[in-house]
Write a structure and sequence with these properties.
Length: 174
């Protein structure tokens, strides 16, 4: 591939990453505060915990492979008594998802343009785009869990609701 083709491909993949983040934000926006406590089944993480976990996983792998991009970022899980609690404020979750998506974008773009892998003491990606693919797969799993949690709590997103929030972000129909 030529440099121009590589740059075009990088742009498309980063656009895909941004669409993925917009889907997460769309799902977050459909939930009331009570909805963030929904769980796919008893003992499973709440939706708030899953959103928080997604953000933390993004930053964990960046911190392991490009730590200079994650300096001074706050944790969203906090210890209360003997329990770890997820962030429950939707506005805070939204901002942290936006910030972490932007951080991942910067890392992938920077390392791809420099022709460098993402590599740390405990984890490595042969190419920066593999980090994105890992995160997309991980987040897709959690979106499935979130949809199941909504269904289990009686808050099912119907086809008419899901189309503009999820599927229309990926395609155009005529």
């Amino acid at each position: 591939m030529t440099q121009t083709a590589d740059q075009t491909l990088l742009g498309v993949v980063l656009d895909s990453w941004n669409r993925n983040n917009n889907i997460l934000l769309n799902l977050l926006h459909t939930m009331s505060e009570a909805g963030l406590e929904a769980r796919p089944m008893e003992g499973s993480p709440s939706l708030a915990a899953q959103f928080t976990h997604i953000r933390d996983v993004r930053l964990f792998f960046v911190s392991q492979t490009a730590p200079e991009f994650t300096e001074d970022l706050p944790d969203l899980f906090r210890q209360e008594d003997a329990e770890w609690q997820a962030e429950r404020d939707a506005g805070q979750i939204e901002q942290m998802l936006r910030d972490s998506a932007e951080t991942v974008t910067k890392v992938v773009q920077s390392r791809t343009e420099a022709g460098l892998p993402l590599s740390g003491a405990h984890v490595a990606y042969d190419h920066p785009l593999l980090l994105l693919q890992h995160l997309l797969w991980h987040e897709g799993y959690h979106v499935g869990q979130m949809m199941l949690a909504l269904k289990a709590s009686g808050r099912t997103l119907g086809e008419e609701q899901a189309m503009p929030l999820i599927w229309d972000l990926w395609r155009r129909e005529w």
